[in-house]
Amino acid sequence: MSNTKDAVVAVWFRSDLRLQDHPALYHAMQYAKENDCALLFFFHVHPALSKTFTKRHDYFFRSLAAVRKTAADLKCPVHVVSGELEEAFATIQSSVKSWQAVFYNKDDVGFGKQRDEKAEAWFSKQSIKSHTFEDSHLVGPYDIEKKSGGPYLVFSSYLKAWRDIDKPVPLSIEEEELESLAWRKTTLDTEGEKVLGDLLGKCEMPWKHTGEDAARKRMRAFMNKAITGYHEKRDFPAIAGTSRLSPYLKNGVLSIRTLHHEALRVLEKTSATKQVDTYIQELAWRDFYYMVHVHHPDSKDNEIDANYRGIPWTTNEEWLDRWKTGTTGFPIVDAAMRQLEKTGWMHNRLRMVVASFLTKDLLIDWRVGERFFEESLIDYDASSNIGGWQWAASTGTDAVPYFRVFNPTRQSERFDDEGDFIRAYVPELKNVSNAHIHAPETMSEEEQQEAGCILGKDYPKPMVDHKARRHIVLDTFKQVKEKN
Ligand code: FAD
Fold it and tell me: How many angstroms does the Cα of residue 246 sit away from the middle of ligand 1?
């Protein structure tokens, strides 16, 4: 039985595409019960969403479709409204008798923050009570400060303070209750449905895994096994040693509180405490980069460390294209970039390797790489991506100075010693022996014939000399630092 009450309280879904452990939903349910209201769920398709369409949009809309399906099965339709924000809200307002309150999980940075400010102004004008919640992170961007005041810029010090803070626990939502509280109408804005239908029509990627059930299944599988080997295995891209939960976390299909809580449960029971603790520490990195981004809102465009502003980056379209297409002649870089193209995801170790290669070996601007990841990743998260790129480019929060230049061949030998990952993504190299897989240019002509891989024809020679490029980048950074 759906609810026919006149007074309505709305839950605004955004990048929190789930029904469990959802703060806005949880508190809206309490409010609806206490104030005798019906619950209306909505999603707003912002006009900007129709302008660009990348893999992450594809993944996002499929995740949205998944949560709408789950909600519809519980007879709680998630209505879709479109147009500019005010127009979309007005559509809701004109369809209900009395819109009392709105509940949503807020954003603290970027486009989301600007949108929230606009929304708040409208709600206030209409005397609609707004209740907002911190959802996406365990520790909020303003919860930790240095003793001397201001945000931390060094992760190790931040981590100490992060560990001391009580983390929020999961919120349990009774699905049976949802049906009885849900608002009676089944459609609200047919234009919104049409706009969303068109966007879903653009989805072409065959994602096997979307939706809350898939996220929980992957989380359980990880907690049951891989987490207890995480510290040792997380750097090897050929092994499923990491959780691969980032796309779910990004779109809020899985709650960070639930994930943290499950990790703590394993930690309590296991003897592999170091392994599990390393995993928990990665969740702190996520909070750290979010906090840095909130306190440096211009860091998508500017170097966080002012010492490294004004680096004379190289503009070389051919080099950039070779990096993007995975044809650099450095097998580990090429395999990583092809994994990104094929799956919309890349292993963390490889993100560091390819980012270092672009910014240090090729001396191409980190902003170019950051934007390319934005277009290519399904887990694209502005804060983590900017943090990761600025770390790799030595312009951000890395405690080690700019001398950190990854040697791609050495990284390959260390983290893909048998070449399994390379062979999975660079089929030209599948018959190259382990002795040459990390640097195929070391093969003699005879060995190339034998492997069916002629350098310069089947697979490119290395596009740069790593040693020589290392000297150039170190000199460049030194000069800029001295000048600044
Ligand atoms: P796991 O190893 O299982 O870790 C668990 C979770 O912890 C991850 O899902 C993620 O949410 C968080 N996490 C782990 N490592 C980091 C880290 N270094 N920084 C922040 N959070 C972390 N992560 C994104 O979610 N979106 C991005 O756009 C993104 N861009 C990156 C760009 C660069 C250049 C680099 C070096 C890293 C980037 N990362 C990004 C961080 C990291 O690579 C991914 O979070 C991780 O690879 C996701 O895989 P996983 O879920 O298996 O991670």
Answer: 6
200-239 pLDDT per residue, tens: 988 888 777 899 999 999 999 999 999 999 999 999 999 9
The protein residue whose alpha carbon is closest to atom 33 in ligand 1 is 388
Its pTM stands at 0.96
285 is catalytic: yes
Q: Which domain holds residue 289?
A: 202-295
CB of 398 shorter than 6 A to ligand 1: no
Q: Are 397 and 390 in contact (CB under 8 A)?
A: yes
463 and 379 both lie in a single domain? yes
Q: Is residue 100 part of a domain?
A: no
Q: How far apart are CA 350 and CA 337, in angstroms?
A: 9
Q: Is 472 contained in some domain?
A: yes
Whether residues 249 and 376 fall in one domain: no
Query: 329's torsion region: left (phi>0), alpha (psi -120 to 50) or beta?
Result: left
For the sheet with 38-45, list strands across it: 78-82, 38-45, 7-13, 98-105, 129-133
- For atom 23 of ligand 1, the residue with the nearest CA is 384
Q: Which of 122, 177, 313, 374 is catalytic?
A: 313
Nearest CA to ligand 1 atom 45: 246
Examine residue 85 and state whether it is found in any structural domain, yes or no: no
Q: How far is the CA of 258 from the centre of ligand 1 (A)?
A: 17
